[in-house]
Design a protein that fits this description.
Number of helices: 10
Low-confidence stretches: none
Order of helices and strands: HHHHHHHHHH
Structural class: mainly alpha
Distance between the termini: 8 Å
Number of domains: 1
Strand content: under 5%
Number of strands: 0
């Protein structure tokens, strides 16, 4: 857990999302879904793209288009929160960040209800094997 948190801070500070990745993302998402993805913060887009690559490599999830889309959109309910606010969330909690699955669902429900429902549940106890695998990959 500590190792993954250090990796997250490093990624937030030193890494950035490349517009070149958009070519791959646009092959998975509809235009409406891509618009939502594109509104995400640089950090959240990079995290989501990295998760997408892990999902694509996973034998169980790679053939499920909804999980490929979920990887890219699961954090679309987060706003462009600062590193300090994200650290606060980890240490003592932050209701607005913790509510991001509900906000993601609201953004997605009229565009892709299945992915919206998966986004809503992506921090709850896993309801099946696919979600369990997804959560493990998301925590890396």
């Amino acid at each position: 857990m500590i190792k993954s948190r250090i990796k997250q801070v490093y990624t937030y500070i030193f890494c950035s999302y490349s517009d070149e990745f958009d070519l791959l993302v646009k092959n998975i998402l509809t235009d409406e879904e891509f618009k939502i993805f594109n509104e995400m913060s640089e950090y959240d887009k990079l995290h989501s793209f990295n998760l997408y690559k892990l999902v694509k490599e996973n034998k169980t999830l790679s053939t499920d288009i909804n999980y490929l889309k979920l990887a890219l959109l699961h954090d679309c309910g987060k706003e462009n929160f600062s590193l300090l606010r994200r650290v606060k969330k980890v240490l003592i909690g932050d209701k607005k960040i913790e509510n991001h699955p509900s906000l993601a669902y609201k953004k997605l429900e009229n565009i892709n209800k299945i992915v919206g429902e998966l986004a809503l549940k992506h921090h709850l106890p896993p309801f099946d094997e696919k979600m369990k695998i997804f959560q493990q990959l998301d925590d890396k």
